[in-house]
Amino acid sequence: MKKKLLSMVSLSAIFMMNGQEKDSLHQKKIEEVVITGQYVQQSINKSIYKVEVIDSEQIKNMAVTSVGEVLNQNLNILIEPNSGSGDSNARIMGLGGAYTKVLIDNIPIVSDQGMGNLVDLSKINVNNVERIEIVKGAMGVEYGNNAVAGVINIITKKKYSQKVNAILSLQEETVGKDYDWFKKGNGRHVQSLNLGFRLSDNWSVAADINHNDFQGYKGILNGYRYFNENNDKQRGYEWLPKDQITANASVRYSKNNTSFFYKVNFLSENINFYNQVIEDLPLGGGSRTYVANDRDYFTKRWIHQFNIQTKLGSRINYLGDFSYQTQERKSQDYRYDIPNRNVLSKEDKATFYDSKVFYSRGMFSNFLDNDRFNFQLGYELDHTSGFAGSSTFQFNNNGINIERSIFSYANFLSAEWRLNDQISLRPGTRLALSDTFDHQYNYSLTAKYSASEKSDLRAVFGSSNRFPTYDELYTYVVDNNHDIHGNENLKPETGYSLGLFWDYANAASNAWRFNLSVSGMYLDVKDRIESVIVSTSPLKYTFLNIDNYRSLLFGGGLNVRKGDLSLNAGVSVMGISQSLNTGTVFSPSDYNFYTEANFSANYSLPKAKTLFALYYKYTGIQKQFTQKVNQNPGAAPEFVLGEIEDFNMMNFTITQPFLKNHLELTAGIKNIFDVSTVRNTIITGGAHNAGSSNQNLFYGRSYFARLNYNF
């Protein structure tokens, strides 16, 4: 641990020693704008919410390939990959992907389990991302259900300064120690093309395509070609190979007080599962071969979006979003002859998830000709229909398919009152109606105090509901080992959050600039849904609204800039308290605290324009109570303190431009400390089912090189 921290300090010291007085272009004082939680797009300094922004320059310097990789650098966000399904969800403030709303341009994204939650962040590439906005805490008034832990809003590029913009990018990356160019080989291979055309002062069009070919990570396994006569179960991959293509096309119009854009997004993803279990197949005449029952998974997703911003009459602002989205996931089983590398038989493709969503959100504001008082009236409707086949990644649904649809409609109202030049208030409320659940109310109250141009204090209270997922409502699984039943009588969870945020910015006369932030948050989730053992013999589970969850978060951050040098550092301490309930025994509800810290440094050589970038994050030991699974069916339930061990992540990149900045070469190392799995005795079976296991988080140290050419 001391060596790791020493290496980080040494690298950062090099940057600090070489700091220059002269500002570089990317360090100009440009006023950042945000849209998340706002009536209209406005300066981040004027936002009444605390909005964290990751801009396109930061994303490019990280040399990442998906949104999940970007967010992993943020404090109190952990991207949890599922090495079996290939999905990656965001865990914010200790809560999983079901509690976070993920948006693209203010529109929730379709997923297997619904709309906006449990979104696979590895399916969102960063090829055309302008910035990512993050608001932590319950945002139910503005964004509805499932925005309990926060909102992640991915803003795509729409404006172009030049008439023709064309960028070609190629990136080659090792996966652990494995790499080669060949198909069915090793490594990650990424190609992208981004095009933008400004047709006139009012019209622009854009298109991009990205191909991300991940050849899988073997880990302790030996790949798809391996077989052993003794069936030692060492065939396959810890991280499944996946081949992903994403494409976007958009058209935008803007004139006077009206602007609109239409955008279509397409995703195609193929994942290859190679069975660890092999079979001996006699061929006759004393010869034999070895076969495995393998499976491919196919995902197709379409997102259509239309956005319009205009004025109704001479004063009223209208912002409207309309979206139709589909996502279909299929599987195909086949029998594979391993020694001869030949497919012996292949079944038809079968759909196991199919979601269709129509979504619309509209907001009206600026009703009054008053600089100090404004209010916003909005609506939101969501019709989601879903099909879940009897065979999924996790289980066989006893031959029963699930087909359901959920319609919800909401109205929300908020008012923004600027009492004077220092104090602003925004109360808000939402009423949500559904054909499946009882009506839900959400409330918010936000206050901002600007002591000076340098100092802002924000206090934010909010609530949000988390609707049950398809699995929790309708799952019906029976096999030889367990019996799991969904519960259609579940009610939505309710989350409440309170946050205090203080920001201070200063630009000293000697050209040093710094921003200091301090924050504290409290989150309380009532009626939390968990799987519960309702019978030990035979072993049966169901889902019930029985638990409570609370978290406390304290943090601080510092940004320092001078000339071509930029330094960022942050630290947070979070405590989690869970009240778990088996019906007869309750868990301890003590808070268990853990620490996170991050650090980044960017330095650019003034003449050569060589950019050095370092990113570091430490996640401390996490402890939570969880239910022990007893081998004796008659034993009383028992709660134990599970643990996730600590780990360090560090990435380092060097970028060099050539040919008057038309050509750019980037190289670097990801995951310098070679983290792959961590010991986890909490998550293995869920909060009510403990187990001792290793959790896959990363696939070890990797090296990459990227080439960008700007035509």
Keywords:
711 residues, mainly beta, 5-stranded mixed beta sheet, Maltoporin, Chain A, 41 strands, 22-stranded antiparallel barrel, 5 helices, 5% helix, single chain
Average predicted local confidence, pLDDT: 86
How would you name the CATH homologous superfamily? Answer: TonB-dependent receptor, beta-barrel domain
Distance between the termini: 45 Å
Unreliable segments of 5+ consecutive residues: 1-30, 684-692
How many domain regions?
A: 1
Pfam families: Plug, TonB_dep_Rec_b-barrel
Protein name: TonB-dependent receptor
InterPro entries: Beta-barrel_TonB (IPR000531), Beta-barrel_TonB_sf (IPR036942), Plug_dom (IPR012910), Plug_dom_sf (IPR037066), TonB-dep_rcpt-like (IPR039426)
Domain TonB-dependent receptor-like beta-barrel: 241-672
What does this structure look like?
It is a multi-pass membrane protein. It holds the Pfam family TonB_dep_Rec_b-barrel. This is TonB-dependent receptor. There is one protein chain. With 711 residues, this protein is mainly beta. The chain has one domain (33-710): TonB-dependent receptor, beta-barrel domain (Maltoporin, Chain A), CATH 2.40.170. The protein is built from 5 helices and 41 strands. The strands form 7 sheets. The chain has a 22-stranded antiparallel β-barrel. A hairpin with a 4-residue loop joins strand 27 (476-478) and strand 28. The two termini are 45 Å apart. Residues 1-30 and 684-692 have low confidence and may be disordered.
